[in-house]
Here is the input.
Amino acid sequence: MKTYKFKLYQTRNNRYLHSCINASGSIYNHCIALHKRYYRMFGKHLNQYRLMKHIAKLRKRIKYWQQVGSQAVQDICQRIEKAYQLFFKNNKKGTRPPNFKKTRKYKSFTLKQAGYKLLGSNRIKIGKLSYKITLSREIKGKIKTLTVKRNSLGELFILVVTDFVDESFGVVTGKIAGFDFGLKTFLTVSDGTTIESPLFFNQFRSLLRKANKNLSSKRKGSNNGDKAKVNLARIYEFISNKRKDWFWNLAHELTNKYDVLIFEDLNLKAMKRLWGRKVSDLSFASFLEILLCVANNKGKTVHFVDRFYPSFGDLFLLWVYQ
Here is the structure.
């Protein structure tokens, strides 16, 4: 699967998509309430197909919910089902069940086979309205799902998932390397080289402190308070985008240089409890997700070794000799 992300131009029609996302949040919270009530009454898990039928009947009476397509409603029920299955499977590991979400903070809804159509001249039709998007590259493959997503700034994006498989693998170098995460240095390579982290959160901490102070001085619910909140969210979004861009560039650099990359399987939750903001700023898990995506596209291999092994270097040499 390949995902394309495009930004929607800000127009009046976008109000309809915002309303659809809010309605999806309302349906999500209603489904969570039904799950909790059903478990209290019968001590059993609510079947997702019974839930879909019940929501379909309610949609006929609640006009606000009719903005959301039937496939988007089914996707909401399926996501809740997956979250509960993950909770029951990993209950002993501290996984929490899905809970209520604020409607204005709800982020997206997904369409699968109907409800959208790509038009010419960088336009897309969702429901009965058309929207202008920044179609920066050609969409390859058959479209499987289309997701309308809203970020913390209120900007809308279109995520298109296709079945396109890129068979143009990267250049084979025949090199193998082991990598170790650290707090002072982001990565230490087995050949002795080190990769320093820019620590974007530290770079812009003064801006965040100023924006937080400005927000705390505003009256809650006022227009100035809303503007200060958006300004703070914009700084967080800027830091996140800078970090992601650095991760993507680093992932391409490493996969171009090495064919096999070996990493230690870290306990990130424990590290976050010990070092908190430092680990969040380094964001090891996000980097590994991006690295796995780039490595799969280029036909490279990423291995993880046991975190409890006494010597990471010895294990790396043992793996090479095997």
About this structure: The chain has a mean pLDDT of 84. Residues 2-162 form one domain. The CA atoms of residues 49 and 208 lie 46 Å apart.
